[in-house]
Amino acid sequence: MRKASVFRSLGWAVTCIAIAIAFLFPLYAVFTAAFKDPTELTTTPATLFPQSFTLENFQLLNDLGDGVWTHIGNSVFLAVFTVVGTAVLATLGGWGFARYRFRGQGILFIAMLSALMVPFQPLLTPLFLVLKSLGVGNSLVGVGLVYVTFQLPFALFVMRNAFLNVPQALEDAARVDGATGPKLFMNVLLPVVRPGIITVALFAFLSSWNEFLAALILLNNQSLFPLPVALAAGAVNGNNGVRWPMLEAGVVVTMLPCLLLFFMLQRYYTSGLVAGAVKE
Amino acid sequence: MLLIFFAVPLVQMIWMSLFDWPLLGQQTWVGIQNYITMFQDSSFVRSLAFSGAYTLVLVPVLLVLGMALALLVRPKRRGVGAFRTIFFAPVVIGFSSAAYIWIYLLNPRVGLFDELLQTLGLTQEPVYWFASPNLALLSVVVMVVWKSVGFGMLLLLTGLLAIPDELTDAARIDRAGRFQTFRYVTLPLLRRPIALTLVFSAVGSVLAFEQFYLLTGGGPEGSTTTVVMEIFRVGFNNFQLGLASAMSIFLMVILVVISAVQLVLLRDQSSLND
Q: Mind listing the UniProt keywords for this protein, alphabetically (chain A) (predicted)?
């Protein structure tokens, strides 16, 4: 009996480790590739264990499009715009939906959730024209507005639940102590719903940082491209074929913030997914 | 805001789909002509068929593998958290990054994958993964499984962890075997996460863009062009915005149907619970 369970544990561990190696292998390949020197990187056969270590590939990124810092800047701008916009609107809106009853509230909330079901990709053609007529066509602000809009339904949903979980007694107690309006909101409620805000911000960051199609369609100037689009234009589909050293370094720069944030804030990601999936 | 960026574009898109609408120049009313043209357009029909086939291949694979992984990382054993994290990590890096990684990995000249296969003695020569339609599709499916299977795993795992141990224990006491317990106790309780996993992966596959745009470029010879790629080729390379709108509406109808199926599935379940 005992022996069987030892074997079973061992079998389980071996299976998990084998799958884990398969999952980590692509990441291992790209991280090592980014630090190989360009000659080693482009020589056949590829080396499983790197023979060289250099930062040269990252310097090559300066030749990407308008220079890598421009594109990192664009990506950061979009991410900050999306995160701040989504967090502020969802927090205020979530509070409204949770605390105040108004006519048509149910319908409005359902209408919003149904927008969750329709992704934005099919809407890009008209959005292109709408942004243009609003004077934010071909601009980062325009793309940011699109990201915020399509992030909002999910974010409002999470924030409404967060506010619904705040005990009414806490709010009443604060009122008795003389806190009102904005003060009540800032000092009493905000700290309590902080996990919800972090969840919303994390999802907004990941979706805007990784978004590709809308940025590709809505932006025409190379100087406005965020990092993933700049890599497609400069390192993959360029005139001289794929520029591997630049691409590998670029991918590492692109995905590192996502992986780091995920490892740090994992439980917020999971709770957001559960909130969206189980209660929706 | 939702009004400006959602309702207005929706109405405008329906409106536009009734016109011959070039990016610059005169718009002309053509009624439902775009909807007719669209189905006579062989590359659109072909892209629809391809996206459909891709979805039908990918969705079951993602569900079965997601379930297998979820069952694997369900037990509370030492180190299980680390495995959950590792299996899920590729989900957060975005489709474009994943595509960039795999272009490199699968490249016959500089990539590690062929080198690994040859070292293991599985193949003798480098394989040109994107040269034939079937291999290209296979490569993308493998890439997407790596990138997305963690998402289904997490949804299903959440469902599995919500099932109280007493239920499965009771089934065991009633002498149900492992498989029977899974089939008659666990699976019915997982209907909701299963439905969600199916819908998320189906919507994701129907909307597939980056994985093909970057990995295969739609080739060889247009054989792996997806609907979304085709719509934006028509809209933003050929500037036939009216036709592209009609195609988008058709795509949207498909997506709404998929979501509606989800609602029906979930409603069935809630009535079972009553």
A: Cell membrane, Membrane, Transmembrane, Transmembrane helix, Transport
Are B6 and A274 an interchain contact pair (Cβ–Cβ within 8 Å)? no
Q: What is the DSSP letter of B226?
A: -
Question: What distance in Å separates the CA atoms of residue A79 and residue B15, rounded to the nearest whole number?
Answer: 33
Residues of A in contact with B87 (CB under 8 A): 19-20, 23
ipTM score of complex: 0.85
pTM exceeds 0.95, yes or no: no
Cβ of B210 under 8 Å from any chain A Cβ?
yes
Look at residue B24 in the predicted model and tell me its pLDDT: 59
The helix (run of H) or strand (run of E) holding residue B29 is strand B28-29
- B200 domain residue, yes or no: yes
Residue B108: strand, helix, or coil: coil
The total of structural domains in chain B comes to: 1
φ, ψ (nearest 5 deg) of residue B28: -120, 140
Name which of B5, B51, B105 to mutate to probe chain A: the one with the most chain A Cβ atoms within 10 A of its Cβ: B5
3-state secondary structure of B28: strand
| pLDDT, tens digit, 9 for 90 and up, residues A247-260 | 888 889 999 999 99
Partner B contacted by A218 (CB < 8 A): no
Q: What is the CATH number of the domain that holds B103?
A: 1.10.3720.10
* Best of B4, B51, B97, B256 to mutate (most A CBs within 10 Å, chain A): B97
Amino acid identity at A212 = F
Q: CA-CA distance, A50 to A35, in Å (whole number)? A: 8
- Domains annotated on chain A, with CATH: 2-54 (no CATH), 60-278 (1.10.3720.10)
